[in-house]
Amino acid sequence: MLLLHTGCSLMSEIAFLVAFIFGILFLLQERQLKRKTLGRLFHRLPPLNALEQINFAAISFGFALLSIGLACGFIGEHVLLGRWWTGDPKEYLTVGLWMLYFGVWWLRRRATLRGRRVALLSVAGFSFALVTLLGASWLLPSWHRYF
Amino acid sequence: MATAEGVDRHILVVGLNHRSAPIELRERLAVQQAQLPELLARVREEAGLQEAAVLSTCNRVEIYGRVQALDGAVDRLHRFLGGHGGIEPTSLSSRLYSYTEPESVRHLFAVASGLDSMVLGEAEILQQVKQAYEQAKACGATGKVLNALFQRALNAAKAVRTHTGIGRGSTSVGSVAVELAQKIFGGLNGRVVLLIGAGTMGEATLQRLADRGVRDVRIMNRSFERAARLAADHRASAVPIEQMPAQLLEADIVITSTAAPAYLVGRAAVVAAMHTRHQRPLCLIDLGVPRNVEPATAGLDNAYVFDIDDLEGLVQHSHQERQRALSASQAIIDQKVDRFLAWWQDEARMAGGGLPGAPRDARHFGSGARGA
Asked: Which of A51, A66, A108, B351 is the least crowded, having the fewest Cβ atoms under 10 Å away?
């Protein structure tokens, strides 16, 4: 259970990283098109729709893995400590992260958000994910001493 | 190159291109596919060529040949071309250029790479050179030397195109528009195009998009009859101008090409459309002067607007890129030419037991315009 929890959390981090990368690539390509400057970057980068699709796939994957990881965390906690919630700062942060990505995923699915804004959110999201999943343990007292 | 017996072996090219002669002259000398076998046989006989190949495109007509001895070969080729086109040889001569090795070798390599074309770096010429070679070979007109010459020319061209930017970028407004659309949408299969107006450039762009797989085309015009006629030509459907808002919802690519004095597609209309179509990307190609698409539309998210200045700027940019690639291309060609000449010397030495000639034998014949 704990293994699943850590494993999924880590993999979701990787998925968010992929979303981040493709979000950046999307923004670069979009900027080239908007500015009408077609440099070497323009020629080498894949088309916008491909970048968008991969970005969304990564967000979906990441969100799914995060959900599983989070759930396993709570279940494992219950098994270990008989409680569902410890008030660990990391828990708060991760739930926050989960809500962020839920929002992005849902809005993208319904196509309320698209393109540029999703890319920007992927960038922001990953930065937050970095802090939540890795940084928080070092900066704040937590059960998660190493991760 | 001189052999011990004093018999020379030379590679000649005689011809004209878009720089040396106007189209009226070029079209008279053009060689049809069907004429080739007979022409190749005749030129070898009348001009005394051991091997021959003919390259005939809209930009050039050139005869490549291998001869044992140079004396008079060029003049005989001039007369042959004059006879073929029904032109006085004396008036033709000033328009023809002729080279012997190494210039002739370099010329073919440069031509195949697109360095001698009207549009620098064009790709079609490579296919045309390949065809010319294969046809000459099929007729038995080529031998060891011209076979090697053409094969190496084609390889050199491929190397130039792979390793330099000579063929990169789009060099016409229509192809730039297609390139942009592809960068936004990826594949163009299944995309919807709306053409508003009926300029030649608009139609040309439409045709290029159709070549890339666009099947669903709608045509809109102030006069519905005009739209219907155009639609018939392009296997498209005509739509009345009142349907503009609905069409903006469905189209992926909108091409406007009218002389209307006011904006046909306003920012507000696009904002509304983008909202209803869930921000699906929209590409607007505005070929009109004055502009048909309100410029403020360009700032909208997921809407990409390109006016004629943007497109022509990109074409210019491509041309400049290709120019920059010129010296790198020439360097590759020089290298390949040297290798061919070295091979040829070895061949001559082994076959005729002769002495290799000076590799930089820079004789050239013919008064008048030089091609390359």
From this structure: B351
Q: What DSSP character marks residue B302?
A: T
Q: Specify whether the CB–CB gap between B283 and B304 falls below 8 A.
A: yes
Residue A71, SS3 per DSSP: helix
State the Cα–Cα distance between residues B31 and B49, nearest whole angstrom.
Answer: 18
pLDDT in tens, A54-108: 998 998 888 898 888 888 888 877 777 777 777 777 777 788 888 888 888 888 8
Q: Evaluate if residue B251 carries a pLDDT over 90.
A: yes
Where do we find the tokens 């919802």? B249
Distance CA(B360)–CA(A136), nearest Å, equals 73
Q: Note if the bond before B102 is cis, omega within 30 degrees.
A: yes
Of the candidates A25, A109, A104, the one whose C-alpha atom is nearest the C-alpha of residue A62 is: A104
Contact predicate B84/B29, CB 8 Å: yes
How many angstroms separate the CA atoms of B307 and B314, rounded?
A: 11
The reply to whether ipTM tops 0.90 is no
Closest among A85, A67, A68, A65 to A18, alpha carbons compared: A65
Residue showing tokens 């809109």:
B220
DSSP B53-98: EEEE-SSEEEEEEEES--TTHHHHHHHHHHHHHT--HHHHHTT-EE
Residues of A in contact with B302 (CB under 8 A): 114-116
Interval B190-229: pLDDT, tens: 899 999 998 888 888 888 888 888 889 999 998 899 899 9
3-state secondary structure of B240: coil
Residue B276 contacts A where some CB pair is shorter than 8 Å: no
Catalytic status, residue B139: no
Task: Check whether the bond before B245 is cis (ω within 30° of 0).
Answer: no
Determine how many CB atoms are found less than 10 A away from the CB of residue A89: 17
Q: Tell me which of B164, B253, B279, B317 to substitute to probe the interface with A (most A C-beta atoms closer than 10 Å).
A: B279
Query: Pairing state of beta strands B10-17 and B60-67?
Result: antiparallel
Q: What angle do CA B267, B272, B273 make, to 5 degrees?
A: 95
Residue B207 CB: number of other CB atoms within 10 A? 14
Task: Flag whether residue B212 sits within 8 Å of chain A, measured between CB atoms.
Answer: no
Strand-pair category, B97-100 with B10-17: antiparallel
Contacts of B301 in chain A (CB under 8 A): 114-117
Q: pTM surpassing 0.80?
A: no
Dihedral of the alpha carbons of B243, B246, B248, B253, in degrees to the nearest 10: -80
In the sheet that holds B192-197, the strands lie side by side as B237-239, B216-220, B192-197, B253-257, B282-286, B303-307
Is the Cβ of A44 closer than 8 Å to some Cβ of chain B? no
From the list B58, B138, B259, B355, the catalytic residue is: B58
Neighbours of B300 (CB within 10 A): 18
